[in-house]
Design goal:
two-stranded antiparallel ribbon, 25 helices, mainly alpha
């Protein structure tokens, strides 16, 4: 069913109202951020609404009344904070620009969904998502009823559907219309939250927009080369209709390689897409902690609440962001204590206590869910079929070019000998990529691979150099980005050696890594997309300085990027992967 302007306006106003109600809480929690937490108000408001309505519903049942009561609780908290702390101050120009960005992102994607609003099977999961939403609207308690088997409950992470159900109940909009409005909302929320991260870490709006672009709009290199293949032929404009967006999501054979823009464009209102907004929320809250000069226990508990929210939202995200939070807390503590050159017992006690409090909050605050939802999946070793460098570069080539440039520049600053030595393995990786590109282009092999473990040649030096850079780094923003880089490396390494067993792999062994790569590479895209936005800002400032302009050895060489740029030029049409 299509969209109309009235429904769009009502939905947008409700999102604005939820964000407005949460502003005092956001301001109180995120005083270390340049925008004082304004950019988290909407996603954090949705998180609070979902969590509180869930808690209330466990006691009194799920209904319109429990949702309204949740809004009252949020408003009461905000009012108490406002009374206790006095007035809150946000920069008016920033608010106006932020809201324009959010509104434009929402309207543009609402227009896209209006062009193709149908909810049906298109190689995706829209039909299943709509089924879960309808089940959520009919349920009176949690866990919600199973829509396929009468008398049983849903054994699935359902908080994403609860978010949508709450908004449908508040607005009164038909579920078939709300489905597409929700998709547009999560794109706008993700774009604006990524913008907030970029702005808060660089202090400049244009880099906030660039960060949001890298995270939510940029795609992998496959789409670029598919366009190049189209435009090199005659009647290029007519051939544009032959562009196959599906190809970009099937890069590594027998896996799924979605990135945020593909997920939003494809339009499945599925947990992996909904969770992007809340992954970014967690990262922004962790940035607030990284910028603090001491442990703020309220921020620690809120991070625990937000990370715990990922478990019933999209369970795949929970362990990754729990580890990321531990790394951020530890590095922030080390950074703060090392300024005084006194790492004593208090350092270890506060670090352990803050990590324990955060982890405990992330689990105990959602204990009713954990007691009702049992995971029957196990982690196993990948026997074979690991990722080729050519395919990995096709997905992350642009990000890796920027990340390696950033890390190598940092390495040059503290040890030129290590810098020269560190060029060897990435150089070998570049040669392997060129060799595999030749095999692929000239149809010698459809899945070229020199060695099962060739990706280590690229990732291990990046991991080592990032750790060494953190040990020498004196800028908290750089430390935060290096932590994100390291987290992305660990995600990639995990996918090379381990996988989560599921029904797909049990049905056909060639698909054992399909879901693991799918869900975890999407996390990696979000994390490294943020890194890319900051690195462009950082390197631009660096190369604009007189000192860097006079030092040619510090300048990045574009060869690393171009290596990944010729892998698909002539053969992109033949590159489909699994469907």
């Amino acid at each position: 069913m299509g969209l109309n302007l009235f429904d769009i306006a009502v939905w947008w106003l409700v999102l604005e109202a939820i964000g407005f109600l949460t502003l005092p809480i956001s301001y109180y929690l995120c005083r270390n951020l340049k925008d004082s937490g304004y950019s988290i108000s909407k996603p954090f408001g949705l998180l609070l609404l979902t969590y509180i309505s869930w808690i209330i519903s466990i006691a009194v049942g799920y209904s319109y009344i429990s949702i309204m009561l949740s809004l009252v609780v949020i408003a009461a908290f905000s009012f108490l904070i406002y009374i206790k702390k006095g007035s809150i101050h946000f920069e008016k120009k920033y608010i106006i620009k932020f809201e324009i960005i959010f509104l434009l992102a929402f309207l543009i994607f609402a227009l896209i969904r209006a062009y193709s609003p149908d909810i049906y099977w298109t190689g995706g999961e829209k039909f299943m998502d709509m089924t879960f939403i309808n089940s959520m609207l009919r349920t009176t308690g949690f866990p919600p009823l199973d829509p396929w088997m009468s008398g049983t409950v849903t054994y699935y992470y359902y908080f994403g559907y609860l978010i949508v159900s709450n908004l449908i109940n508040i607005t009164g909009i038909l579920p078939s219309i709300a489905f597409n409005l929700a998709t547009a909302s999560f794109f706008a929320l993700s774009f604006s939250t990524a913008f907030g991260i970029g702005f808060n870490i660089t202090g400049r709006m244009k880099y906030g927009i660039l960060t949001a672009f890298f995270v939510t709009i940029a795609g992998n290199l496959v789409g670029f080369f598919q366009l190049a293949d189209i435009f090199r032929k005659e009647n290029a404009l007519n051939n544009m209709f032959s562009f196959n967006y599906w190809t970009s999501s099937r890069v590594i054979p027998d896996t799924i390689n979605e990135f945020p823009y593909f997920s939003f464009l494809h339009g499945d209102l599925h947990p992996h897409m909904i969770s992007i907004t809340f992954q970014l929320l967690v990262i922004l809250l962790l940035l607030n902690i990284m910028k603090s000069n001491s442990i703020d226990w309220r921020s620690i508990l809120v991070v625990g609440l937000s990370i715990g929210f990922l478990y019933p939202l999209n369970t795949w995200d929970y362990p990754v962001y729990l580890v990321l939070a531990i790394l951020v807390i530890c590095c922030n503590q080390i950074f703060n204590y090392s300024k005084n050159h006194q790492i004593k017992m208090k350092f270890y006690l506060t670090s352990f206590a803050s990590i324990a409090a955060m982890a405990a909050a992330s689990y105990l605050l959602y204990l009713p869910y954990h007691l009702s939802y049992k995971i029957d999946k196990t982690i196993s070793l990948v026997p074979s079929g690991r990722t080729s460098l050519i395919f990995y570069m096709a997905i992350y080539g642009l990000f890796l070019f920027l990340i390696y440039t950033f890390v190598l520049r940092n390495t040059w600053n503290f040890n030129k000998g290590i810098f020269r030595l560190s060029l060897i393995l990435p150089g070998i990786a570049a040669l392997i990529t060129l060799f595999e590109a030749r095999q692929f282009i000239f149809n010698i092999a459809t899945n070229p691979k020199v060695n099962e473990y060739e990706l280590l040649i690229l990732l291990i030096p990046l991991l080592v150099l990032s750790v060494l850079s953190i040990l020498k780094e004196k800028d908290k923003n750089n430390v935060f980005i290096l932590i994100l880089i390291i987290t992305g490396v660990f995600i990639s390494l995990f996918c090379e050696f381990l996988y989560i067993q599921d029904a797909l792999g049990s049905a056909d062994p060639i698909y054992i890594r399909l879901n693991t790569i799918f869900k975890m590479y999407l996390q990696n895209w979000v994390i490294w997309g943020i890194c890319a936005g900051y690195i462009v800002f950082h390197l631009r400032d660096f190369f604009n300085s007189k000192k860097s302009m006079g030092d040619r050895s510090c300048r990045p060489h574009p060869a690393g990027f171009h290596i990944s740029c010729f892998c698909y030029y002539r053969k992109i049409r033949q590159f489909q992967g699994c469907s």
